[in-house]
Amino acid sequence: MSNVVSALAGVSHAGFAKIEETGLNGMITVRGDLGSSEMAAAVKAATGASVPAIRKIAAGDKGRVAWMSPDELLVIVAYDDVADTMAALNDGLSGVHALVANVSDARAVFRISGDNTREVLAKVSPVDLSSEAFGAGDFRRSRIAQVAAAFWMNDDNSFEVVCFRSVAQYVFDVLRVSSDKGGEVGFFS
Amino acid sequence: MRRYSAFAIAREAARFHTGWERAWRSPEPKKKYDVIIVGAGGHGLATAFYLGKNYGITNVAIIEKGWLGGGNTGRNTTIIRSNYLQDPSAALYEKARSLYETMSQDLNYNVMFSPRGVIMLAQTESEIRGYQRTAHANALQGVKTEFIGPQRVKELVPIINLDGPRYPVLGGLWQERGGTGRHDAVAWGYARACSDMGMDIIQKCEVTGVRQEGGKVTGVDTTKGPIDCDKLGLVVAGNSGDLANMAGFRLPMESVALQALVSEPIKPCMDVVVMANTVHGYMSQSDKGEMVIGGGTDGFNNYTQRGSFHHVEETVRALVETFPMVSRLKMLRQWGGIVDVTGDRSPVIGKTPLGNCFINAGWGTGGFKAIPGGGWATAELIAKGEPGPLSAEFGMERFIEGRFIDESVAAGVAH
Amino acid sequence: MSTRLASGGRLLNKGKQVHFSFNGKQLTGFEGDTLASALLANDQMMIGRSFKYHRPRGIVASGAEEPNALFNMGEGGKFEPNQRATTTELFNGLSCASQNHWPSLEFDIGAINNHMTRFFPAGFYYKTFMFPAFAWKHVFEPIVRQSAGLGKAPKDRDVDTYEHFYAYVDVVIIGGGVAGLQAAKAAGASGAKVILMEQTPHWGGRAPVDGGDVDGMPVEDYITTLINDLKQMPNVTMRNRMMGAGVYDHGYVLGYERVTDHTPLENGPRHRLWRIRTKQIVTATGAIERPLSFAGNDIPGVMLASAVRDYVVDYGVSIGDRTVVVTNNDDAYRTAIALKKAGLEVPVVLDARASGGGALAEEAKALGIRVENGKGIAKVKGGKRVTGVAICAQAGEGSVLEEIKCDAVAMSGGWSPVVHLWSHCGGKLIWDDAQAHFRPDATRPPKGADGEGFVIPAGIANGPLDLPAVLADAHAAGLAAVKAIGMTSDVTAPVAEEKPEAAMEPVWLMPQGAGPKLRIKTWLDYQNDVKVSDVRLAAQEGYESVEHTKRYTTLGMATDQGKLSNINGLATLAGQLNAPIPAVGTTTFRPPYTPISFGAIAGEARDEVFQPLRRTPISGWHADNNAFDEPVGQWRRPYCYPQNGESHADAVKREINQTRTSVGLLDASTLGKIIVKGPDAGKFMDMMYTNMMSTLKPGKCRYGLMCNENGFLMDDGVVARIDEDTFLCHTTTGGAERIHGWMEDWLQCEWWDWKVYTANVTEQYAQIAVVGPNARKVIEKLGGDMDVSKEALAFMEWKDGKIGDFDARAYRISFSGELSYEIAVPASQGRAFWDALLEAGAEFGIMPYGTEGLHVMRAEKGFIMIGDETDGTVIPQDLNLNWAISKKKEDFLGKRAQLRDHMASADRWKLVGLETLDGSVIPDGSYIPADGNNANGQRNVQGRVTSTYYSPTLDRGIAMALVHNGLDRMGDVIECNTVSGTMIKAKIVDPVFYDKEGEKQNV
Amino acid sequence: MLTLKCPYCGVDAEETELHAEGEAHLKRFGPGSSDDDFESYLFMRENPKGVHFERWRHQSGCGKFFHAARCTMTLQVFGTYPAQTLEPPQDIKDKISATYPGWSWREFQ
Fold this sequence. Notes:
heterotetramer, A: 189 residues, Gyrase A, domain 2, Alpha-Beta Plaits, 2 domains, six-stranded antiparallel beta sheet, five-stranded antiparallel beta sheet, 33% strand, C: 1003 residues, alpha+beta, Ubiquitin-like (UB roll), FAD/NAD(P)-binding domain, 23% helix, elongated, SoxG (chain A), Sarcosine oxidase, gamma subunit family (chain A), TrmE/GcvT-like (chain A)
């Protein structure tokens, strides 16, 4: 639908690493008992993935699931699949105390790829981003400079960063400045 | 006491200054005093001074665990202003400010009170409304302030950036007779005057217990032995909770670190004091040329006199935004002090559960500017045993009645 | 004169000339020079003036401790005052100028102060300038201010960028001298993650200058092998040009990296501030040589002995042709020997020790250098540079035995470990009698989060001064650091050799019996002009605490923070007080070690990323359509949309008239939206709100109030019941995060057994208010399956459905008193929905209105606004909102507080409306005085204005106010004050000015 | 610059991810309570020099509130624990006793 636009309409920047907005993602907040069989089944049905371990992101054939807190998950699917995924989750969790909310439009997502991707984030997040401490499949909620954000790492050393839609421009600008050429640190290499 | 003057200096210069006498005596404690003040900071010394000056009570000891003026009196950013919103605060701080006007002459000690003017910047619509409210209140309180527009701000502060992309300067609350003073000199001047009246300032003497009988204080135990008294004043910013503990009561206060920092000195570039509350930074330039900068308080209880560095960062980035030229200055030194913060962030001057024990505490970030007023009011309280008009609203009973003195309201909240 | 030697200069690349300028003069140096060494190579002995007396000042040191050589550097957006020449690498095009003089360095009017020295003792400010009272501010202070200060204030905006970097490691080693390198090797071999940082561009510190052998090779070669070893360790990061600026609690270290200061044309940030979290810190920060206190020790050409040596060996620069060396220890003989070996003259070494020196003294003598034991300097001769010294017996009072011509003096008063970083976080010191210095007390380190020490001093920074002991100590420190984190290292310690040294003897005044005439010319603090006489005076006057003395004299308060002066000053004070030095104590060391740029501290947060700015999905439209924004929390909201140059007031009037007569649009996306869901949601909502929310029917909306536990009104908004288990709570703009956190606090910490989940879905939706008599027509025009008729969607109901193509939820709520729909659509569709509404409403003249229009319209209706009618001291009862406070509920947050005497009192100020008698608008913030004054002489007050506007609808000024007994005083005329002192008369009226019956919103 | 381990997500969170939330283990007094109890609940604080129990929120993180036992004089952290409890866990009390034998804080010791 042409009516639908992501926060920054796919903006990108090429510094020593590349920053790009990935466009709209389907995102669903799920709160409930993460250890319950209903949750496991609902998540499996909705995404094909298992409930992730603490501070991990799990992938299934239909989507990914990130651990947000002891009673919260973030389900990530294709934007157009949200209604179906919501239905699957609500279905699986019917009768148990849980909350399922569509937050697809409340978020912006950026990908950081190329060289020294860890450095881009290490300039603005108080997180140990060394390879010993953070690798593919790890998921972390923290802050980017002055706003809350979450990120995870993919197999190709790229990161994906999720923030609130209203601060998308701020987060993009901060990541852009952090990846400006000449600012390579050389700490993780 | 030999008076200080230019002539005295000339006289002493001829003999290489060998004739100067001690500014204050360093006596051993007596067995008993009419009044013991615990804490030889600005408020404690001022309390003692006005006990002597206003009430003729001079059999007074001021007990200090460290060195006089070594707590928050010597650690603040020396701002003096009285543009407060609520009547009780405006009365107290304006009393203090007016006493600062003549303090150098009253004490024969140059405390370098410099009424260079204080601007509190308005950077949001609600801040404009808040400061206009303060200006209206001040007009009825006898505090001279005015709300000024951005161009006048720029004239007063040429280095300011009016058009910051985030928070443009929309105006400011201007108090022309606010300013700064030399913080150490305030303590030293009072100390010299107290000592001259025959009061004993006992440094390096820590209070270890409060002795009581039948709900009244009889004296204190100290590292220099027990000392008796008829009345006790606790004036120990940052340690109030600890002293109250010894005396057996609790306070509606918590102690947190407040930070400050200075730049390297540069030639004069800003003559007035600027406070930017929206972005949390305030700055003035000392006579030495250092930019003196106040930071924020930590959110957690702390007695280490070391604050968290991220508050320094927040303050500095606000100042770089407000005064872009500071970006290429350097931070020379940062430090922290421990301040007592009450439930409504206003101070306590009042009685305690012990009949003849009185307290002056909870000044939060505003203690220095209040020193002479706080001392004046506390002396009245101790001398008469009941609060006078200046401290009437500042008793601790306000917390049980729900009768707060909340100064944060001028800042407004988002709508 | 100082000059460049033909040979020597191990840090220079003599093949590469570098051009720079000083005070407009074009000069040249070499690659590898510091600004200081290059200036000395060009015979710039005098480089500035002191702070108080404007005395000529020359370079004293070769490193971070330099107090004098501070310059205005660069131009325009790269201008920077107070740049220290000894830590500034020379680069092509560098321009600098000396500071603190007028009109020129050579001829300085301020130097008149110099001749008045005797009249400006310590603390003289406090004793004079008091009369008349106004004179301090208007006469004396301006003079003091103008003559103080150092560099010029920058004028232009900084053109450079800065950044931060977070690093998490096991061990941080601060200092890349031989000790730091050795400690890094010992620690690195364990596999621990190590950062080794060094403030200069070079590794190895001063060991190559001082000499000695390690493992059978010259120490310089050993350093090369250490560097190579460390480079082979992937777990060790080596950074130079990075200073350990501060040590903070819980293992937090600030590293100040000067990335492009020396290459200003390169891309990249100027400075990078590293915020490092580490388990252990090794401070291999070296030591600083102390000056000796003799008369004239501040004349240009008097320099630390180690610095004289550094300039000869490292930079091939001689300070003078004839250098007198004066010392109380053996180390300074190295300087004499180095000078002699460079072909320079050393007319005499004055050794204050009666028994003289050890092996190094013998070596000097063997080179033909005259050595005088038990002698010192009575006085240095010269003005803008040294011309000679008068020699005396150290034990005497300064009778001159002999005068010697010379053009430089190299002095050494012993060495003080750099304990700053050890001390920043509470590490304690002990006094070492043998070396006459404070060193870290290893038994009382700063403690970390686990209660154990986390800083380990290493090498000279820990006290030992000779190479074998330094290396052994540094090696042990490296091992101890990894042991403390449960790792092991099996590297063996190196074996070093150095000539044994005779014991030093403390010399705090030269000669020891120097009288007042000499003491007043004997400097302790070169930059702040503090002399031995000043410290003695402070003690005499009772400023006995070291902190008193420091503050009274300004000793150690200059930009070098007393690196050269503190111990000498302390010893002088102790001497005057007849107390041992450790009993007098030491001052507190505060970060940073040397000054760091504010730019670096601010980091990336400047200009557009100074602070986050939150945007709604419709913000782009507002920006394109001339919206005038106001900041509301982190949001920017349009205040109004001026057209064709109209004033803001006219724009607001137009927007209101349009909305009241036809239809207007408001971007309400910033309102908070929180889902509350669960079997206990009703019970929870009843606690959070003053209202009874549990009885709200699905499909319905209710206006709710939230109070804090202190009873004060903190937020308001419309609550919609979605289904039996689910509520959607609207909060004020900027309130969403706060209220969500507030709810979570109670759920997590007080009622954790209640089955309720919350989710903040504020940004999922763009929310647009369609307001005005034609609102329904506009929505209906868009089509879709949602029936928005009065019957299908009544006032205070909500409904889901399609409006046009859009997935919408419509709420029939009104904050303006008009027919109004607040419609939420997914944020991604927000802009398109806004555009669609504008298009559909075109025939009705639809236009957006801003926050001011919103405010005026709600005031016309007598609706309260959080932040205007409330300020954190107002309870709902003050605002006559008792109807929204459930009397049936036993408890809700704030209920108990509202029962307290002062809050339950009938005497409180109550909300009323005000109509000015002349129709004018009362100024914002006006108070309503009452008769008489209070006990403090302040005018009594009986109320205050909370909101005041020009109402276009009524064409007059209207206001809301809190007035004492206001509800009983309808029709009374009161006066509102203005800052000019005149009063505005107003009548107390009902606060609902418009459509009192509410017919318009309910159609 | 504190670092506290969030007991919920296991992160050693640095202070800038956290938000201090005041004294822990306050007992709420509502309608029906005495003026003294209510004042005590809202305003009176232990504010000790030494062992303290306090509330934190992992604000820029998992969002959970938790408790910490910390010394206000040395900033030593004895432990953090979930907020869903009326008193500090025994192992943390033991750890405090190892450093400060005989300590007490309100009713705990």
